[in-house]
Every structure is written in structure tokens, then in C-alpha cells.
Design brief:
Length: 624
């Protein structure tokens, strides 16, 4: 029971158990009154504290409420007579379902039981070994086709771990999973905005849902509606299970311009310490990257951002942080343009494919939470966001997509064959590039949003992942698994440094080389849309005594067939077709040309053929 109040240390923010009681630390708002209210299990006020009486600095109040306070009690603050949410609240009493627009107040729990992490350790996977997978916690399993018990929950993600392992994923990137208000209410001027339903109980009934969650929120607690009632422990159970499976957890955080940037490192340290999160994808304006890069408490965590200043003061003063990565749309835009055969894209495409800097890493993607899904990228020329009720004015206008001859669903076989080929081409672009690949959830089995490229408010089948299992979907899923397995099995396909296009190992071959209709004589003219790329396996080893294979990628994004000259391999080796992205067995053209002369390969239109070096048994027999 409550015994006494005494001034606390002022650190850390929020509520924490201390010897003899619970410490409450909060910012002192610019208000006339500021009180701490403590409630019992019946929601009756059993104690209140005038926080300014326990000021530890001009902007911070801290009080220790002594006594044996039951964990099912709760607390809130009151500013000028209005209840407000503690921005440092770490657990909530809320039982509100996702999208519930009732104007109820969420109190904070006093504390949570200690969680048994057992022997949990961070997977700490090097960037070159990562295959990342971005998902929305609710949208990933909300649909009945997900076949999980805890649909739309943290535990639903846990249930999908066997699927992620089978696919070959070893890192997931979570869209906002901290406590945010998903209610969007109309302003007086008729526009919409996300308001605090707790402090504005008279606000009009919401017309939309902020499904994505890119808004300010309670950054120190997991989203309660993504749980079955215990968000803290359920999030920790998810992370622990993912770590046991060798899968990292990266969290997206959005910090608006109005947020106090000085608290961002505190947020990241908290999730690293309390929830064992492996890294953070930071979004917003004026993120203090220098401060974050130099923070010793999170130096072992991966940090993703759209841009890093490589010559920043923190790097010069505090040294190199090896865990930072750039994640932006440059790779996506170039690959999409090349995919649909735009002119003057070849050189940029090749640059993005080999880009793999050692100072700041690169994370590549073809699709993201915004924009078209992979299925829609090859099925729509234009966005179709009518469901968003914004007259189709929202969303990106430049998607660099191509519908392959018909807008939306088509019954024409030729169009569907071409679309399948283009989907596979895009997957090869992504998974065979040298940076870290990031797949958007559902792309591997042709999830669609019906042409909506901005489903931020679609808490339904449009915004959710619908787990499709048709023949075409299964074919793409198998192809994706094959590419991931190929990448993982061959170190030369995921090196830890960028190719130098030189024979620096004095082995007779550069690490990477370009070819055309003549070997070793590439052409990069603006009008060209095809190129041959050879990767030399001598620059990596499968074992201590066994070198990796040679790979030849024949990229043909032209609408006509092209013949590629094949470089001669070392004695005892020959080229063999690994796979081609053409759906129909027009790939027989490829096999026939190899059988004839082994010096060239003819690749059909808009097709990628991948050749691998194998032992030439006939030559070995001749030598015998």
C-alpha cells in the first residue's frame, strides 16, 4: 500500500520499479497544474501527486511513490484538469480493438513482470548474408487465408516463422508497431488528420483509418491492438521466437517534425534494451543521424535511413559505425524503368546491381509499402486509388509500371505469360543484386492491391496480404525460394565488398565483367536493352579448398531476341543453363544454341537467362 512520496532521480523517463516503490518521471508541461493520478483495479483514484513539488530540473519532474503497489493498478497524468497520456508509457490498460473509434482514455500500467529471455542472443547477421522481408503486423495475417490462430497479432507473425524459414528469410522489417492512434478524424476545414482521441472526446466520428501507422505515438510500448491483451510480453515472445529461428527484427519508426529529436536516442536504446530489437528503420524530418551513429548503446544495432552523410562530424570524431545502411528508392526506380524497356537505363541498372559499398551498406527493394505490389507493377499502367475517397489524387503518379497490354485482370494467355516473365525478371533483379535485398510481404505469391498504390487507409483485403495459392502464385513462390537458395548457397552472389571489375587476384579473370554479341566487348549505347554479365567464382570459395562457380547473367529487356557471346571458361569447365525467366519453353532456343557451339546463347525477348559453370566430363575423358 502507498506509504510516502519522495523526489526521484529524474532518470529514466516513464515508470520504473525502484527499491520500495515505483518512480514516475515526466516532462513538466507548460500548464498551470500537472498531477499524477494512481488508480486501483476498480479504476478509483487512490492517490494523487502534485508533480511540480518534485521538480528535479526546469523541465523534469520525478517522484517515487513508496509502498507495495499492485501491478494491476494504473496511472495517468492530469494537466489543467484534463487527463493526458504519458508519452513514455510502456504498457497500457487499453482493450480497444484496432479501428475502434470510441473516445476512451487509456491509462498506463504501473509496471510489467520481468520477462524470461532465457539465452536469447542477437542473430547479428552480416549485411551480405541478409534476405529481408518487410511486413505489416496486422496486414500480414489479418486475412483468413493466412490460416493462423492469432490473426493480425504479434503472435500471428510468430505462427508464420516456419513459412519465413522455408522461404529463406532471416530478417523482418516491421511497419510501425509502437502504440499509435489509427483514428483519422476530419478537421474543421474538411481535411483529415490523426488526432488524439484520448484528449479530444468530442471529435467527430472518424471517416478513415490510418492503417499504416506513420504518425506520432507512444514510442515506448508495442501497439496494444496487435496483441491478445498483453502487448509487452507478446511482442517479446515474438522477438524471442524469431531470434531462435535465426531471424532479425528491424522496426520502422516515424518521427514528425514536431517531435523532440533529443528523445529519439532514448526511444532506440529502450527498444534495444527492453525488447532485444536488432535494428531500426528511421523515418521523418531532421533525424539526428550523427547523434545516433555515435551512440555507444546502439552501436551493435542496424540503423536504416534514406540517406547518410558519410563525411559527418560523428564519423570523424567517433569512428566508423559498420551497422548503417541506406534504404531509398534509387534501386527501385532504375530497375522498374529497365524492366519495362525504357531507353537509356542500361548503365544505371548495372551500377545499381553491383552497388555494395563497404562504408554505408545498401538495402535494395523493387516494391515497398507504398506504390504498387509486384503483381500490380506488371498489371497496371495507372494507380486506382478510388477506394481512398480522395478522387484518385493521392499516391505516387510516377510508378514506372507497365500493364503488359491490358489494364488490370486479363484472360489473355499472352498477357499473363508476359506478366509472369516480368515478375520473375524483377525478382532476379532484386535477389541477384549485390546489396541487401528486401522483399515486400506477399510479392512472392502475387499479392495484389487491385491497382491501389497508396492503401494507407485500407484495413481490409486491399491493404492486407491475401495468401494466394493458384498455379501461377505457387510458381512464383517456388521461383523466389530457388533464387534465395541460390544466393545463399554461393558466396560469390553475395560478397561482402563491391566488385572492382579488375583481375586483382591475378587469376586470369576480373571479378565482374560485361559482354555483348562479342565476348569482352560490351556495348552501353542509349538504345540498348541487353547485356551479358559474368561473375568469376574464383573470388569466393564454397569451402577452404573449393572455389565458387562462374555465373553468366544474360539480361535481355528488349522486345526482340538477342544472341550473347559466352566467354571461354578455364579448362575443364563448360557453361550450362541454370534457369531462364521465360514461362513457356521458348527457352529451348537457349538449350539448342548451347548444344551447337557452346560459344553463344540466344535469349528470347524480355528474358533473363542464367548460366553456371560445370565440369566438362567429356574433356576429362579425352584427357584420360
Amino acid at each position: 500500500m502507498i506509504v510516502n512520496h519522495k523526489t526521484g532521480s529524474g532518470f529514466p523517463m516513464g515508470t520504473h520499479r525502484v527499491g520500495g516503490g515505483v518512480q514516475f518521471t515526466a516532462n513538466l508541461p507548460f500548464k498551470q497544474t500537472f498531477k499524477l493520478l494512481i488508480y486501483n483495479e476498480s479504476c478509483d483514484v487512490v492517490d494523487h501527486v502534485n508533480m511540480p513539488d518534485h521538480r528535479v530540473s526546469s523541465g523534469v519532474c520525478s517522484v517515487i511513490v513508496e509502498g507495495d503497489l499492485p501491478k494491476d493498478w494504473s496511472y495517468a497524468y492530469e494537466t489543467d484538469g484534463i487527463k493526458t497520456t504519458d508519452p513514455f508509457m510502456m504498457n497500457s490498460t487499453a482493450a480497444r480493438k484496432f479501428g475502434d473509434d470510441k473516445a476512451q482514455y487509456d491509462s498506463g500500467k504501473l509496471y510489467s513482470d520481468d520477462f524470461d529471455w532465457k539465452d536469447d542472443t542477437l542473430p547479428d547477421i552480416p549485411y551480405n548474408n541478409i534476405v529481408s522481408y518487410q511486413l505489416h503486423v496486422r496486414g500480414f495475417t489479418a486475412h483468413s487465408s493466412s490460416k493462423v490462430k492469432c490473426r493480425g497479432k504479434f503472435l500471428g507473425v510468430t505462427e508464420k516463422i516456419p513459412y519465413l524459414k522455408e522461404l529463406g528469410i532471416n530478417q523482418i522489417v516491421l511497419m510501425p508497431s509502437y502504440e499509435f492512434d489509427e483514428i483519422i478524424r476530419p478537421k474543421k476545414n474538411g481535411t483529415f488528420d490523426t488526432l488524439d482521441y484520448k484528449s479530444d472526446p468530442k471529435a467527430e466520428k472518424p471517416k478513415k483509418i490510418n492503417f499504416w501507422g506513420f504518425t506520432e505515438g507512444n514510442y515506448f510500448m508495442p501497439k496494444a491492438s496487435y496483441s491478445n491483451g498483453d502487448p509487452v510480453n507478446e511482442f517479446k515472445e515474438m522477438v524471442k521466437a524469431l531470434h531462435e529461428a535465426g531471424i532479425e527484427v528491424i522496426m520502422r519508426f516515424y518521427f514528425p517534425a514536431t517531435f523532440n529529436k533529443a528523445f529519439i536516442p532514448d526511444v532506440l536504446r529502450f527498444w534495444a534494451r527492453e525488447y532485444h530489437v536488432d535494428g531500426f528503420f528511421l523515418m521523418g524530418e531532421d533525424i539526428p543521424m550523427d547523434m545516433i551513429a555515435a551512440d555507444v548503446y546502439i552501436r551493435d544495432r542496424k540503423i536504416y535511413n534514406n540517406f547518410f552523410d558519410k563525411d559527418s562530424v560523428s564519423r570523424k570524431k567517433y569512428g566508423f559505425n559498420p551497422n548503417m545502411a541506406i534504404v531509398n528508392s534509387d534501386f527501385m526506380n532504375v530497375c522498374r524503368k529497365y524492366l519495362k524497356s525504357d531507353e537509356n537505363q542500361l548503365s544505371d541498372f548495372l551500377y545499381r546491381q553491383r552497388m555494395n559499398p563497404s562504408d554505408v551498406h545498401t538495402v535494395n527493394y523493387i516494391t515497398d509499402y507504398y506504390g504498387f505490389t509486384l503483381h500490380d507493377l506488371v498489371s497496371y499502367d495507372y494507380k486506382h486509388n478510388e477506394e481512398n475517397a480522395e478522387d484518385n489524387n493521392d499516391g505516387e503518379n510516377f510508378n514506372y509500371s507497365w500493364n503488359c497490354g491490358a489494364e488490370g485482370i486479363s484472360r489473355k494467355k499472352a498477357i499473363n505469360v508476359l506478366r509472369m516473365k516480368q515478375v520473375k525478371n524483377a525478382l532476379v533483379f532484386l535477389l541477384m543484386a549485390q546489396g541487401t535485398p528486401m522483399i515486400c510481404a506477399g510479392d512472392e505469391f502475387l499479392n495484389t492491391q487491385g491497382g491501389n498504390n497508396n492503401p494507407y487507409c485500407q484495413d481490409n483485403e486491399t491493404g492486407w496480404v491475401v495468401w494466394r495459392s493458384s498455379k501461377h502464385c505457387s510458381d512464383v513462390l517456388k521461383f523466389t525460394k530457388m533464387l534465395i537458395d541460390l544466393r545463399r548457397s554461393h558466396p560469390i552472389l553475395h560478397p561482402d565488398r563491391e566488385f572492382r571489375l579488375m583481375d586483382y587476384a591475378a587469376c586470369g579473370f576480373p571479378d565482374l565483367s560485361y559482354h555483348a554479341d562479342l565476348a569482352w566487348n560490351p556495348k552501353f549505347d542509349n538504345h540498348l536493352r541487353h547485356i551479358g554479365v559474368m561473375i568469376c567464382g574464383k573470388y569466393a570459395r564454397l569451402t577452404k579448398t573449393c572455389e565458387d562457380d562462374f555465373f553468366y547473367f544474360a539480361y535481355n529487356m528488349h522486345w526482340e531476341d538477342h544472341t550473347f557471346a559466352l566467354p571461354k571458361l578455364p579448362k575443364g569447365l563448360k557453361w550450362e543453363i541454370g534457369f531462364a525467366t521465360c514461362n513457356e519453353m521458348s527457352s529451348a532456343v537457349i538449350h539448342e544454341s548451347l548444344v551447337k557451339n557452346k560459344e553463344s546463347v540466344t535469349v528470347p525477348d524480355r528474358t533473363i537467362a542464367v548460366l553456371v559453370s560445370v565440369k566438362d566430363n567429356r574433356k576429362e575423358e579425352t584427357l584420360k
